[in-house]
Amino acid sequence: MKPLQITTTQKREVIDVTDRIEAPSGEGILVIFVRHTTAAITTVDLDPGTDLDFLDFLQAITPQVQWRHPHDPSHAPDHMLASLIGPSVSVPYKNGKLLLGTWQRIVLVELDGPREREIMIV
């Protein structure tokens, strides 16, 4: 298991971590897992501006309701969005190379930053 430390700098941001993930030799599947409930891991196409489009989309699907989250209702949507996106992705690899699609990038989605985040790679 190899942790990857990421320092986020904004309340919400998309951070490309693809090039920081090392695939072992041989072949198999890596699981990339973020150990937090207000951050997520997914794959996206990162053409210029699509990170901001993604964040705008998340904001647009967040309802304006009275949240009941006990310790801080203001970040309840961050928990909900992180659950919808998910805490992990599984990526096949072969001979030290991640077998991603042409445009796929692995990203950390920060939803309640800035914070220190830890990603586990197993």
Description:
This protein has 122 residues and is of the alpha+beta class. The radius of gyration is 15 Å and the shape is globular. It has one domain (2-121): YjbQ-like (Jelly Rolls). It has two helices and eight strands.
CATH architecture: Sandwich
Indicate the CATH topology. Answer: Jelly Rolls
Could you tell me the strand content as a percent range? Answer: 35-45%
Uncertain runs are none
The whole-angstrom Rg is 15 Å
The dominant shape is globular
> How far apart lie the N and C ends?
5 Å
Secondary-structure-based class equals alpha+beta
**Biggest pleated-sheet summary:** 5 strands, antiparallel
Helix content: 10-25%
* Lateral arrangement of strands in the main beta sheet: 1-8-3-5-6
Number of helical segments with 4 or more residues: 2
H/E series: EEEEHHEEEE
Mean pLDDT value: 95
Name the CATH superfamily assignment: YjbQ-like
CATH class, named Mainly Beta
Number of strands: 8
How many domains, in number, for the residues? 1
